Amino acid sequence: MFPAYSLFLLVAYMVVPAAWAQTCPTTPSLTSYLSTSLPDPFTFADGSTKVLTLDDWACRRAEISTLLQNDELGTMPADPQSVAASFSGDTLTITVTDGGKSITFAPTITYPSMGTAPFPAIIGMGGISIPSPAGVAIINFDNEGMANQDSNPASRGVGLFFNLYGSSASAGAMMAWAWAVRRIMDALEQTPAARINTARVGVSGCSRDGKGAVVAGAFEPRIVLTIPQESGSGGTDSWRISDSLLANGTDTQTASEIIQENVWFSTNFNQFATTSVNKLPFDHHMLIGMVAPRGFFAIDNIGYDWLGPFSSYGALVSGRTIWQSMGVADAMGYSQSSNHSHCVFPTGTAQQMQLNAFIDRFLLGQAVNTSGITTTAGNYVFPMPNAEWAPWSVPALTNGTSTTTASSTSSTSTISSTTTVSTTTPPVSTPTGVSQHWEQCGGIGWSGATTCVSPFTCTVLNSYYSQCL
Ligand SMILES: *[C@@H]1O[C@H](CO)[C@@H](O)[C@H](O)[C@H]1NC(C)=O
Ligand SMILES: *[C@@H]1O[C@H](CO)[C@@H](O)[C@H](O)[C@H]1NC(C)=O
Ligand SMILES: *[C@@H]1O[C@H](CO)[C@@H](O)[C@H](O)[C@H]1NC(C)=O
Ligand SMILES: *[C@@H]1O[C@H](CO)[C@@H](O)[C@H](O)[C@H]1NC(C)=O
């Protein structure tokens, strides 16, 4: 029914949309932007151009990425000059060099007692709080050492990332962690001795580290399954709905509180957090949607008002419309549980079976049905379209070239309401009959190119998705 998605994975590897400037709408100045409802993911920031095709979504996704970097998370640095890796014992030692400086960090890998190498893996932000799945390795990433998250302002700009890029780099801690997840992927790809199948790597974390898992999944397209657990505000919550919950008397973490508490965000976010989040030309349903069409499963706990579980629910229901628009809603699920302590996963429950289904499909490559895993434990109701929060209808995105009108060929984008960011152009492929590195090259419903540009091989990740690796 829906033509397969085709080109948007190109953009997934980009941080900024400079290379799309010839076909993507220009993002206007958004200094007077104001929206009490969640911004429509299917209308460009110019307020009029609609997302109708998968190519349009590639443009819109790049725009969302830039806006999130400029106004909330800080800049994802361009790929560094070099990433060197070695493996010994259970330790992957990674040295990243850029601009004449180097840093070294060393995630450890816990291998499963069953299964066969190369193993699928989950990168754990400070470890994982879900049960270790059988047959899946766990890569223990010390996100705290990469970018400190102990307090604001003392931990701002502290950590290995800032040794490399300077303590005044715009990135908040979460963007620094996402950068490091990308370097872990670089290192795994060049280190077969680590015995990890780099086509089947997920990311997870709980609470603050769950916020980081969402950002890593959004900004690293090689991650095939993103599993935020009880991530709350700054993760799967909507800034707008969280503010409304607090205003209505539910003690929920909001933007204005969170920027005082920690350094997860860029200081660029303060202007919105301290005035009105309604000035943000995005909300976290769009951060979530950057993960589409890859696997995404959010685990929530309605037992804590502070986590804003209804806010998360609203953002997840809204964000899922992006998967729906591509005809792959079954790649995105969410599940709430209750009656347990924060970050203590309820093993053996229905939620465990839902988690297993996503892991089996996306990490173990099994033909498992992940359709309709959208569970509320709180009898929450959030119809779509949602007149108050999400008043858009969901297009069925079509294959084919962009229908948007060209209006800019500049390689410098002025997008933020306050900041001008000079963009660099990462290597970007042009669409041909051959898929480029990281692009889709097969799967159920796929009608695009099925061969890969040399030296990459079309690799079956699951029955829905093959990728040039
Ligand atoms: C807060 O209350 C207002 C007024 O009743 C309502 O419209 C809004 O939906 C409530 N917010 C949330 C998050 O439930
Ligand atoms: C949580 O506990 C309450 C009170 O004991 C009970 O009524 C409810 O069914 C429990 N919910 C779940 C999901 O176990
Ligand atoms: C997958 O699960 C959904 C929801 O339970 C169900 O409606 C659908 O028929 C299932 N699909 C297949 C192919 O079994
Ligand atoms: C979809 O797009 C791809 C890549 O441009 C193209 O090769 C393919 O023929 C298109 N399929 C349909 C059904 O339009």
From TrEMBL:
Its EC number is 3.1.1.117. Residues 401-434 are annotated as: Disordered. Its main location: secreted. It is an enzyme of class 3 (hydrolase). Residues 433-469 form the CBM1 domain. This is (4-O-methyl)-D-glucuronate--lignin esterase. It comes from the Eukaryota. Keywords: Hydrolase, Lignin degradation, Secreted, Serine esterase, Signal. One of its GO terms (cellular component) is extracellular region. The keyword Hydrolase applies. GO terms for biological process: carbohydrate metabolic process; lignin catabolic process. Belongs to the carbohydrate esterase 15 (CE15) family. It catalyses: a 4-O-methyl-alpha-D-glucuronosyl ester derivative + H2O = 4-O-methyl-alpha-D-glucuronate derivative + an alcohol + H(+). The keyword Signal applies. InterPro entries: AB_hydrolase_fold, CBD, CBD_sf, GCE-like_dom. Residues 1-21 form the signal peptide.
